[in-house]
Specification:
This protein is 32% helix and 21% strand. By secondary structure, it is α/β, with parallel strands linked by helices. Bound molecules: nicotinamide-adenine-dinucleotide.
Length: 388
């Protein structure tokens, strides 16, 4: 793994090869743009990029080469990399071609994909699942879920605006007055707060709801009204995540949401509970009572949807209400989404790359919290219960 070579009259030690893999068909982002490859090269790593990896994010093979990276085909990147980087999980075929003892970074979603975990174990690959990074202040700059949720929240509003048969802002014109669009945001986490800002910038009148009352101030400071439902369970120990609510609360919440939804032109839903099906906040009865021409963008569609009728990656029309089930929006802004993703990954890599060596320090809560497999064993305690 250690190559020595002569460069600029000094011996440089290239320790590890860092491979940037092309994403699967349909994905436009890349895990690291040339600017990130440049930084890795400066840190004395050899960077090997799968040909065409950045093309849909407007980064050509030539752009990577200009930053000192090498270009190779998939087989070469898989078999020679000591560290392999990708956004989307690797396939069975890809994992079995990885070097034994290598380190792989991706959004593996190990709790939903136990087979992938087993393959990483068999191949003795140290798997790091980027979405499992603990939610601590130190981890903020490495959190790919947050950066990509920012993209999704922003784009969700643009998609809604493009599908709405109305304006977002208020207009007073010689041709008459136009009232502003009423926007309801369900879930005021990273995506929801970004959706509020974007909808406000477009001139919408915005309301938002979340079970975590802590977000009320943030919602108000962005110029939106916080819709309150009393009696929500809020668990400070849940690390900033929402927790499952009681049946009584859920019924009350559905009624309040119904009352606000029927007056809304746009609803953006972002409510998620980690590791569980998304909570149903908009029932089919609510959809039936909504205004004709209204638009729902459901960002939780891949985990079942916040709207009972949502279909993942499909747009459906239910009696004049458009329901857009979309969990793939970051891929539609590939340049900036990749830029943010790459910065997150580079910041995390700096934790495990010390003086040109791979240094997996399991005393570090971020390294331990993100690692799923190492040396043929499962690292994450909860995962041990799921993958037998
Ligand atoms: P998320 O994607 O897990 O969920 C989105 C939002 O949906 C959350 O605000 C959640 O409270 C809400 N929600 C869940 N169930 C709901 C229900 N039944 N009704 C209404 N709303 C519901 O969350 P997220 O956007 O990733 O972030 C949640 C919090 O964690 C935010 O405050 C965020 O700033 C914080 N966070 C911190 C870090 C860090 O410190 N490293 C990283 C990521 C997020």
């Amino acid at each position: 793994m250690i190559d020595n070579f002569f460069e600029n009259n000094r011996i440089t030690t290239i320790v590890a090869i860092i491979g940037i893999l092309k994403e699967p068909e349909g994905e436009n982002r890349v895990v690291a743009l040339p600017e990130i490859a440049a930084q890795l090269v400066k840190m004395n790593f050899q960077v090997l990029v799968e040909s065409g990896a950045g093309s849909k994010a407007f980064a050509s093979d030539e752009d990577y080469k200009a930053q000192g990276a090498e270009i190779g085909d998939k087989a070469k990147v898989l078999s020679s990399s000591d560290i392999i980087l990708r956004i989307n999980s690797l396939t069975k075929d890809e994992i079995t071609k990885l070097k034994t003892g290598s380190v792989a970074f991706a959004i593996f979603q190990p709790f939903f994909n136990p087979e992938t975990v087993k393959l990483l174990l068999d191949q003795k690959v140290s798997g790091f699942s980027l979405e499992t990074i603990p939610r601590t202040t130190r981890a903020q700059s490495m959190d790919v879920l947050s950066s990509q949720a920012t993209v999704a929240g922003y784009k969700a509003v643009l998609v809604a605006a493009a599908n709405l048969p109305k304006f977002f802002p208020m207009f007073m014109t010689a041709a008459g007055s136009i009232t502003p669009a009423k926007v309801l945001i369900l879930g005021a986490g990273v995506a929801g707060l970004q959706a509020i800002s974007t909808a406000r910038r477009l001139g919408g009148v915005v309301e938002a709801f979340d079970t975590r009352s802590a977000v009320k101030e943030e919602v108000n400071s962005l110029g939106a009204k916080f819709v309150e439902v009393e009696g929500a369970k809020d668990d400070k120990a849940a690390g900033g995540y929402a927790v499952e609510q009681t049946e009584e609360f859920k019924a009350k919440q559905r009624q309040v949401i119904h009352d606000h939804a029927v007056k809304s032109d746009v609803i953006i839903t972002t409510a998620q509970i980690p590791g569980r099906k998304a909570p149903v906040l908009i029932t089919k009865e609510t959809v039936a009572a909504m205004k004709k021409g209204a638009v729902i963008v459901d960002l939780a569609a891949s985990t079942g949807g916040n709207c009972e009728l949502s279909k993942n990656e499909e747009t459906i029309d239910v009696d004049g209400v458009k329901i857009i089930g979309s969990s793939f929006l970051p891929s539609t802004i590939p340049f900036d989404a990749s830029k943010m993703f790459g910065k997150n990954v580079l910041t995390f890599l700096k934790l495990i790359l010390k003086e040109g060596q791979i240094n997996l320090n399991f005393e570090d809560d971020l390294v331990k919290g993100t690692c799923i497999t190492h040396n043929g064993e499962i690292v994450n305690e909860k995962l041990k219960e799921v993958v037998k």
